[in-house]
Specification:
- The structure holds two protein chains of two kinds.
- Chain A has no helices and eleven strands.
- Chain A is an all-beta fold.
- In chain A, a hairpin with a 3-residue loop joins strand 5 and strand 6.
- Chain A is globular and about 35 Å long.
- Chain A starts with a strand and ends with a strand.
- The mean pLDDT of chain A is about 95.
- The chains are: A mainly beta, B mainly beta.
- At the A-B interface, strand 5 and strand 10 of A face strand 10 and strand 12 of B.
Chain lengths: ~110, ~130
Amino acid sequence: EIVLTQSPGTLSLSPGERATLSCRASQSVSSSYLAWYQQKPGQAPRLLIYGASSRATGIPDRFSGSGSGTDFTLTISRLEPEDFAVYYCQQYGSSPQITFGQGTRLEIK
Amino acid sequence: QVQLQESGPGLVKPSDTLSLTCAVSGYSISSSNWWGWIRQPPGKGLEWIGYIYYSGSTYYNPSLKSRVTMSVDTSKNQFSLKLSSVTAVDTAVYYCARMLHCSGGSCYPRPGWFDPWGQGTLVTVSS
């Protein structure tokens, strides 16, 4: 089973700043099959990124994904107030078994 | 627009079976996609439960495999989850979602990412 470790656990930043979230895999993720989700309180997760770097439909271009192998990054270039939420990564390269990271909480400083 | 809606009892007694249904609208469940269940205990992260193809093929999380059964009803455009012998640790918000796997401009009938998700339903295990 591929274990995904997200860091930091909590990130405190101000609107307008740049956010960098990390997702590290215990083994190489095949073909960069990694996705990122955003979850706000009381809501279902929303897909942001798939294939490590492809933005989902309707996702603003301030969100970008990068990485390969075991190290992946979600970057939010300029934080908007609505971006403060919890972010999860998920790998689907070792299907049938898929896994989620434990999440990074992005909070307002 | 694809929409998913979970339904089922919000309260289940310990040792009973949790049963949920996910109704899909705006999209045929018989399309070349897998359909998944994910849960989230209060205040915690996401846990994959399993997923099912319209043909009935399934994959379950090994940690839950002995207690999980999924099924699909193409005539009603819905799929279902049963989790047996529940305890308090099974208390969670349960989500259903479509799975997609696309690359290079083509999509494939393989497990992938989850999109979209249902709104989720809270199931509490308590006597």
